[in-house]
Amino acid sequence: MLVSSVLLTLVLAQAATPRAGTPQTDETIPVQRGARLLINNFAGDVVIHGWDKDSVHVVARHQARTRVEIRPTPAAVSISASGTMGPQGSVDYDISAPAWMPIRVEGTYDFVTVEGMPGEVSASTVRGDVTIKGGSGVVTAKSVEGDVRVEGARGKITLTSVNEKIVISDTSGEITADSINGAVTMTAMEAKSVDASTVNGDIVYEGTLVDGGHYSFGTHNGALAMGLPDVVNATFTIRTYQGSFSSEFPLDGINRADLQRGRRVTAALGNGSADVSLESFGGPIRLRKGSARRAHGR
After folding, report:
1. What count of other Cβ atoms lies within 10 Å of the Cβ of residue 247?
2. Average pLDDT over residues 186-198
3. Distance, CA of 271 to chain centre
4. Residue 107: pLDDT above 50?
5. What are the tens digits of pLDDT across the range 108-124?
6. Residue 18: predicted pLDDT
7. Which DSSP string corresponds to 201-234?
């Protein structure tokens, strides 16, 4: 156990410490349209940029005892690393790939950043942050012990962080965001479908509610706050067991006695087109005009 702990400590220290000097790996591989980019990295930074060339440029910094393997096929370019003597160290990648290329990144102690890749993006790590800027179609990001951030994405978006926060901005499409011990914050949103939940965190949503859209927000021990435009067409279904409810909108038909008893109540604004479900067990629910974060004292 002591040897394993020492090795893990060394790997984490290597991943957190930037290296200077000439990279040990610098290769460019031509690719055919339709190919995917697959990256498996145990520890380190993985940064991917989109460019307009039909080739993948891989720059990697690593220790001399670590070998980076780049395996191109007509279907995919696979990138991984292994140790030439004993366990591999961390590898920091800076990769340029065709903007059309689907991306999948998997790792354990990785910090992943993907930018300028408008196609399919999937990134998963255990202990590290995931940041995706852009992306369309299917966008998936997951971390156990790290933040998950998405900006300017369009499409079907699925985000998971077990113990840290999820931050989404300027994003539309169908969004699913789940955390257990982290907050979920969404700003400048124009999504037609949102399903956001957390157990021990707050949920903030600022943006529009699309006519005919479906929105579901649920937190167990946190607060739930929505910041909406002055004109809203939505039907709200609200339930809180030990929290409170307030609204800056004139919601008719709210039975305060039923709310205090934990019963589900329904009220509409405008033509009631969008379907909005709000549920909190132990925290307040707030509907605000403009910024939602005033409900949290900010």
Report:
1. 17
2. 96
3. 32
4. yes
5. 999 999 999 988 999 99
6. 42
7. S-EEEEE---TT-EEEEEESSS-EEEEE-S---E
In the three-class reduction of DSSP (H, G, I as helix; E, B as strand; rest coil), residue 104 is classed as strand
Domain boundaries, the chain: 1-117, 165-298
> What confidence score (pLDDT) does residue 54 get?
96
Q: Distance of alpha carbon 65 from its chain centroid, rounded?
A: 34
Q: For residues 71-98, give the mean pLDDT.
A: 89
Write b or e for each residue in 77-88: b if 16 or more Cβ atoms lie within 10 A of its Cβ, otherwise e: bbbbbeeeeeeb
Residue 37's pLDDT band (cuts 50, 70, 90): very high
Looking at residue 255, its pLDDT comes to 63
Could you say which DSSP state residue 125 is in? E
Structure tokens at 49: 């940029």
Burial (0-12, 13-18, 19+ Cβ within 10 Å), 274: buried
The CA radius of gyration of the chain, in Å to the nearest whole number, is 22
177 CB contacts (<8 Å, ≥6 apart)?
A: 159, 160, 166, 168, 184, 186, 194, 195, 196, 197
pLDDT band at 258 (very low <50, low <70, confident <90, very high): low
CA distance linking residue 149 with residue 185, whole number of Å: 10
Q: Tell me the two tokens of residue 56.
A: 């993948």
- Cα–Cα distances (Å) from 19 to 69, 136, 276, 293, in that order, read 20, 33, 49, 39
Q: What is the C-alpha to C-alpha distance for residues 38 and 60, in angstroms, rounded to an integer? A: 15
**Three-state DSSP class for residue 66:** strand
Could you tell me which of 37, 43, 35 has the C-alpha nearest to residue 12?
A: 43
